[in-house]
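Deliverable D4.2, example record:
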Amino acid sequence: MADTQQVDPKAERKAARLAQQISAFSKAHGGAEGQVAYIGERGARIVLVGEDGGWGDLVAPSYAIAEKAVEKAGITVHEAFDGEFAAKVTTGPYEWKRMAGIQVGGPSNS
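Output generated by the structure prediction step:
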C-alpha cells in the first residue's frame, strides 16, 4: 500500500503566505529567527526576532501550518522564547510605557 498524504490546498496557500511575510520581515531586519507557540483553538503564534533587534509576530490557524511556514521561510526556529534568543529583542520607549501600563493596571492600548 502506497504512503499517500493528503495535502490541503487552503493550508498550503496559508503557509506560503505566512512564509512570504516571514521572509519579508527577515529581509527588512537583516535576517530573523523565530519561535512557534501553540495558542489553543486560535492556532499558533510565530514570534520573529530580527538581527537588528526588531520583533513581530504572526498567527497561523494551526501549529502545523506555522511549522510549515517557518520551514518554507528557512529561518532558525527556537524551542522556547527564553535566554539568548529573548535577549536579542530591542525594546524602545513605546514598549516600556505599554508594559508599565499593563503592570499597574492601566489601559492596554494607551
